[in-house]
């Protein structure tokens, strides 16, 4: 079991934009123990609306009887900057005004999320990460971190993610933000502000997370005489309401903008030059029918990260497959890590 811990960074946290945050807080959870060699760290970067409890939302891949288990590994997952699950976010109190930030919160980027991770790693005394893993927004963070700190990450696992967020992905995010900002309560700047808009935003997002086939399988009507009250309609409403009960519109709004900011080539000559900086043993996994992060984006990563291995998975669930197809992921990732260990042993023997 693990409880949420909070790291308080007492210095000023400077964002990529040049703006600053005072009293940065980073919520995180750890599972297992750091071994004597300090070489069993598994660091998880979570996706858009997830939290630091990776054993809860990535069951089948993380857990006591899973590939990544606390008996063998020291697992760390930090709640990202801007998320309301414990880290500093728009709902946090602005120390200058004594009131919640809400829309006064400064915009931040994927690089800012990584900067916060790096501060936490230093605080925890982590100098080597055996496996850095993430999917979607989490994959964007993991990739950026592997470029920034090239020598501390041994194995990098990127799933359903990209080197730069696409115009298609940005358009989806902007459509969701349009829904949120169309809700006038968003500008009331109160804890439940924008929830009607957030419900619509989630409904839009689901269409990019899943597929035609997935809806045809799970939401197909069993009778032919309906003219309303369709299962697919109920499902969209349910999922929207479900998110509204556990998340807030302000965090969602800002995090979607952070995703849009993702471009590893920014201030690094080019995207390909940036990818060439990755030194970690890299596994890139794509979902064949991912609408939001098409598999061509993962193929691009594997082509331009030196020595990277690429695998595509079949899933009826589209983008969400990276969270659901844990049996297939266990097989692919397990084999990759075994091969990585064997290569390391052979290299040590050659240099001995």
Structure, explained:
It catalyses: L-homoserine + acetyl-CoA = O-acetyl-L-homoserine + CoA. Homodimer. With about 350 residues, this protein is of the alpha/beta class. The chain contains twelve helices and ten strands. It folds into two domains: about 5-165 and about 265-350, Alpha/Beta hydrolase fold, catalytic domain (Rossmann fold, 3-Layer(aba) Sandwich); about 170-260, Rna Polymerase Sigma Factor, Chain: A (Orthogonal Bundle), CATH 1.10.1740. It has an eight-stranded mixed β-sheet, sandwiched between helices. The model has no long low-confidence stretch (mean pLDDT about 95).
Summarize the structure.
With about 350 residues, this protein is α/β, with parallel strands linked by helices. It has twelve helices and ten strands. The protein has two domains: about 5-165 and about 265-350, Alpha/Beta hydrolase fold, catalytic domain (Rossmann fold), CATH 3.40.50; about 170-260, Orthogonal Bundle (Rna Polymerase Sigma Factor, Chain: A).
